[in-house]
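Late entry, evening session. Most of the bench is empty. Finally got around to the prediction I had been postponing all week. Sequence below, unchanged from the version circulated by S.P.
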Amino acid sequence: MTDIKDLEKTLWATADKLRNNMDAAEYKHVVLGLIFLKYISDAFSEMHTKLSSNKGEFEGANPEDADEYLAYNVFYVPEKARWNFLQGNAKQPNIGILIDAAMDAIEKKNENLKGILPKNYADPDLDKARLGELLDLIGNIGFSQKGHEGKDLLGQVYEYFLGMFADAEGKNGGQFYTPQSIVKLLVEMLEPYKGRIYDGCCGSGGMFVQSEKFIEAHQGKIGDLSIYGQESNPTTVKLAKMNLAIRGIDANIQFGDTFSNDLHPDLKADFILANPPFNISDWKGEQLRDDKRWKYGVPPVGNANYAWLQHFLNKLSPTGTGGVVLANGSMNSNTGNEGEIRKSMIEARVIDCMVALPAQLFFNTQIPACLWFLARNKTNHKFRNRENEILFIDARKLGVLVNRRNKELRNEDIKLITETYHSWRNLKGKYKDIDGFCKSATMDEVVKNSYVLMPGKYVGTEEEATDGILFGDKMQTLTVTLAEQFAKRKELEKTIRKNITSIGYEI
């Protein structure tokens, strides 16, 4: 078999070429919908063969009865929605109509897929010859692998494509995708083996997928985790539900605004993994001044960072732990009561660990971020008593560039950060401070530093601006931003010229 990474790159390069002039934000639904259709069709086909064998436990089974598939957690696929039928018609001019009809038929037969699948393949703007080529391309994924191997491959390709579309969309890509290395770090730090896991801004469900991978890698059962999520973007909810269904993950994902309409009001989660949008000002804060979630202080109307932190703390069970990605400014901001809220949280002993991340990890922003690790009870007997300490890790020098704009954390970086945290937190850990990298600070030290939580202040890398960004990082960010703005300006200029020419003027 071809190396998975080579296969992913080849598939992406071909699929992206077929995009032609179509916007990445629209094209992703076309491609990801087809990958999902291929996945459920393959799973159905495998089950259809077993039921048709009429042997053993399948004796007397009817392979065309949808209920037979339900019992094995497999989606029923009607005859004209099956991949071999669609691929056989890939060169027909009505292929778009056939795919839309297939998606519709699948939703009618599978209640839990209702309203999830894309149905824009008959769109006149979508080149049908290219759509047929795309169908043939995706038809080859998993073709030479049988059973679970083929389906796992489709799941990996779906996840890889999500990341590539996020990169292609730039700023908007961050609304549905958290880079895999950050998700992996959060999961490895928190070790969600068993219990309830929650993400109140779940995007396309990457936190849940990575948690499943973690459990499988440690010989656990995915059924030991109950998954709850909420997402305010309706198209992103569809991506998440497909992403989880393609892996057979049963999850309670709800659509709605988490702040104004919490759809898991009574949930107390054992684990929270979340990457909320940074510094959002339009979170309806003025309507929520008396909300019961603001135990540590009322967050400012103009910034939701401390609203997210308190929402997640409110969602944690008495022994729950959480990991939240936020902008660096959250570690030292004093705007609109944020300093007082941070002080109250520190004094309540709910902050366990702070990690400063390198710049350039995100598709949607070049500004570096940090990780907040929260713990409702730092004295519980699962781990050692650390209520008078906070661990600070400065990981800004870790990671490698994977392209001109973006870095990612390597596996060895993730292992270093994770083992540092576990050796500090665990009962028999052998933790030691490392100059310039990690420091276990006492509450007295945190108070002396005016309740500021930037790791650089504690580990000995004081070279931090007030927003927590190194000068070198700032210059790199500025260079990249200017280059991007110049490219956008050139693109805009081209579009204006084209539009003016189309109405009969020459410039």
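Two things to note before I forget:
The mean pLDDT is 86.
The longest strand covers residues 316-327.
Will write this up properly tomorrow.
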